[in-house]
Amino acid sequence: MFKGHTATPVPCGKSTLVNRLLGTKISGVSSKRNTTITPQLGCFTSGAAQVLLYDTPGLVEHSVQGSPLERLRSAWATAAMADQLLFIVDAERQFRLREPAALKLAQQLAAGPPNSLLQGWQQPPAVLFLNKQDKLEPHIREVALQQLQQQLGGIAQFETVFKGAAMLGLGVDALKQYYISKARPGLWLLPPDQAHTASPADLAVELVREKLYRRLNQELPYALTVQADSVKPLLGSQHGLAIRLTVFVKNQLMRSIVVGKGGSIIQGYVAGPTEAELTRILKAPVKLTVAVKAVGDS
Predict the structure, then answer these.
(1) Among 34, 111, 177, 270, which residue's CB has the most CB atoms within a 10 Å radius?
(2) CB atoms within 10 A of CB 19
(3) pLDDT at 223 over 80
(4) Structure confidence at residue 255 (pLDDT)
């Protein structure tokens, strides 16, 4: 058994890497900050080794959904119980923009978060994954990665460093084998054929949010929530599910944007593809219905 926990500052491909490690999707992926707003527990098993991965909302001091303070407390508390932290950085972005958030988080990993979030912090062992190396031009790639490794390694202690590109699968197998080698005797939390603890409703919510963020990245503010209304057996199917979700937005203008002309966005871009993806992931027929409601004009 081995428990890993992701630690990331700004968008860096965290959920893509976790999904790759697990071999299935449990977290939505988009370029928008803080796509992950609820903790996800994934797992992969190889031989006698089982590795648990906690993918939580980013360990950042600002937040735009839910209760920021409670989310941060929960994320740091989970991190403190991990066998190892996985610190993920967008190498291309960090090299070009020198994001202070990444340096600040590395400092917090070493010194601990503010006492208002967690007291008595002792940093678990950590590894560094320099992601999106493919975005760096070949002639500067090695120099850039070496600079980042030295810069971040001078702030926090990392047992080892992986360089890769999660979207392309680069570096993922090496990280996976490293985790397997770190597993120690203990009771498994999940059966060997189970990759996560997310319910069908959880997966549906994640996938709908992902597609809304991807399609409406510029137009859509964060004031959007997706709620699972019901999950029932699908009539005429032995294992199928009928899932109903509601997307809540702030006003009628936002609703018209999310729905699209004649339902083109919510049906054609969101509900339809999500239904197909859920059918593939769950290996059972899924009928997905997504409603959009405005909670009031401000």
Answers:
(1) 270
(2) 23
(3) no
(4) 92
Query: Vertex 290, ends 285 and 291: CA angle to 5°?
Result: 155
Rounded Cα–Cα distance for residues 282 and 280 (Å): 6
CA-wise closest residue to 87 among 63, 74, 100, 105: 105
State the maximum Cα–Cα separation within the chain, in Å, rounded to a whole number: 60
Q: Give the end-to-end CA distance of the chain in Å, rounded to a whole number.
A: 50
Q: Measure Cα distances from 282 to 27, 201, 229, 277, 278 in Å.
A: 15, 11, 19, 9, 6
Q: What's the rounded mean pLDDT across residues 232-241?
A: 91
Q: Per-residue DSSP letters for 174-207?
A: HHHHHHHHH--S---SS-TT--B---HHHHHHHH
In this structure, how many other beta carbons lie within 10 angstroms of the beta carbon of residue 34? 20
> Tokens 């009539």 belong to which residue?
235
Predicted local distance difference test score (pLDDT) of residue 36: 55
Residue 30 has pLDDT above 80, yes or no: no
Nearest Cα neighbor of 91 from 19, 20, 167, 25 is: 167
Alpha-carbon torsion (208, 211, 213, 216), positive or negative:
negative
Q: Are 83 and 182 in contact (CB under 8 A)?
A: yes
Cβ atoms of 196 and 22 within 8 Å: the answer is: yes
Question: Of 10-24, 91-105, 107-121, where does the model show the most confidence?
Answer: 91-105
The pTM of this model reads 0.78
Rounded Cα distance between 2 and 196, Å, is 15
**pLDDT score of 297:** 56
Rank 107-116, 192-201, 262-271 by mean pLDDT and report only the highest.
Answer: 262-271
Collapsing DSSP to helix, strand or coil, 77 comes out as: helix
